[in-house]
Specification:
Number of strands: 7
Largest sheet: 7 strands, mixed
Helix content: 25-40%
Oligomer: single chain
Distance between the termini: 113 Å
Order of helices and strands: HHEHEEHEHEHHHHEEH
Radius of gyration: 29 Å
Length: 318
């Protein structure tokens, strides 16, 4: 077994160039260590010069498959002596590319999105590839600092940025406590509509945790049973402060009914509702502007007719 840390392997690397922030390497050492000796199947979306695949091959010594996907046609120049490494050149958010990625292996333990960093691509890729991760696997999105920039379809208060999406996704973990008749898929309907993607309710029940690190989001996938709060476990004998606590032992969580709570009954999050209303107002403004133009043209026509009438009256009078 290679006992070198990921950072050691990275700093000692020669060959194809790889580009990662130091914080990522430290975070991945913690996150990926449990996978290190497994027959891991890894997909990295966005490989640039391809060096990361060589480093993953050194880190995951028992890896089964290491697949890199990039839209840049120049990646066809990349070759690897390690038979575990496979390349797919194409847009990861096209069906034909997804089909080729899944031809390398039908499911993955780890997926790293280091692609375009545009919010639309990030959210579309998550909707497309998270279902292909096995329970126990991780889906990692890099360089989320780009979601604060307009050039990457974001902004600090952008309603539909990738970071806003993952913040919203975090609420799905606690769905059993919402206290209203709303499922996870409905909560994400605004993003689904905005980016023309589908988030299946059953797939969303597999989200166990969402961790935010500087510029990174990590989504862990487990079976739905492992994501529920489960039974309330109360141990001990003495109840000197609050009585009858022990009576709740082995009970399940029952949310407080929030059918009266206006903050939970908005139908859609306030920012999405605001965006929708602003779009409606913009459409109304365009319609009003059009009607005003018609009115102006009509007034011009009436003025013309009035001028003709005046000239005619002058002729008659003469």
């Amino acid at each position: 077994m290679n006992n070198k840390t990921l950072k050691q392997l990275y700093t000692e690397h020669h060959g194809k160039v790889s580009d990662k922030w130091s914080l990522y390497l430290a975070s991945y050492e913690r996150l990926f260590s449990e996978f290190r000796e497994r027959n891991v199947r890894l997909l990295e979306i966005g490989i640039q010069n391809g060096g990361s695949l060589e480093i993953w091959a050194k880190y995951f010594i028992n890896a089964n498959r290491l697949v890199g996907c990039d839209i840049n046609n120049d990646c066809k120049k990349l070759t690897y002596s390690d038979s575990r490494i496979a390349l797919v050149v194409g847009d990861a958010n096209l069906d034909i590319t997804e089909k080729e990625i899944l031809s390398k292996t039908k499911s993955y333990d780890l997926i790293i999105d280091d692609g375009s960093h545009r919010s639309s691509d990030i959210i579309k890729s998550f909707a497309r590839y998270f279902p292909h991760i096995v329970d126990g696997g991780l889906y990692v999105v890099e360089d989320l600092h780009c979601s604060y920039w307009e050039e990457f379809e974001g902004g600090l208060f952008s309603t539909f940025s990738s970071l806003s999406f993952f913040k919203r996704l975090a609420d799905t973990i606690n769905q059993e406590h919402w206290g209203i008749e709303l499922n996870r898929q409905q909560l994400l309907s605004g993003f689904a509509s905005h980016y023309d993607v589908v988030f299946e309710e059953e797939i969303l029940t597999h989200i166990h945790s969402i961790e935010f690190i500087n510029s990174i989001c990590v989504i862990r996938k487990l079976s739905p049973q492992e994501n529920e709060s489960g039974l309330r476990l109360i141990v001990g004998e003495e109840e000197l402060v609050e009585l009858n606590v022990k009576s709740f032992n082995n009970t399940v969580a029952i949310p407080l009914n929030q059918s009266h709570n206006i903050a939970s009954l908005l139908g859609v999050p306030p920012e999405e509702d605001l965006i929708s209303r602003l779009k409606e107002l913009a459409i109304h403004d365009i319609q009003i502007a059009g009607l005003n133009q018609v009115a102006v043209e009509r007034d011009v026509q009436i003025a013309g007719l009035n001028q003709v009438a005046v000239e005619r009256d002058v002729q008659i009078a003469g």
